[in-house]
Amino acid sequence: MSGTCAACDCELDENPIKVTVGGNAVEVCCDDCAQALREADASQAQGSGS
Ligand SMILES: [Zn+2]
């Protein structure tokens, strides 16, 4: 937990955005990064169904 964005690896400021991806809580720098992770997670979930 060194405080970097899970999407773009830039440093987080004092108000990171928390996103849950694949059951893991991660922090991102902005809403664009949050949306990108959510979309990636959604596409993975669809691809790994039973
Ligand atoms: Zn970011």
In brief, what are we looking at here?
The protein has 50 residues and is an alpha+beta fold. Helix content is 34%, strand content 20%. It contains 1 helix and 2 strands.
List bound small molecules.
zinc ion
Overall morphology: elongated
Helical proportion, percent range: 25-40%
Oligomeric state of this protein: single chain
Major β-sheet strand ordering: 1-2
Major sheet description: 2 strands, antiparallel
Distance between the termini: 33 Å
The succession of helices and strands, N to C, reads: EEH
Low-confidence stretches: none
Mean pLDDT: 89
Strand content: 15-25%
Helix/strand/pairing category: alpha+beta
- How many H/I helical runs? 1
Determine Rg (CA atoms, Å): 11 Å
The total number of structural domains is: 1
Secondary structure tally: strands: 2
Give an overview in words:
The protein has one domain. 34% of the residues lie in helices and 20% in strands. It is built from one helix and two strands, in the order E-E-H. The chain has a two-stranded antiparallel ribbon with strand order 1-2. Zinc ion binds at residues 5, 7-8, 10, 28-30, 33.
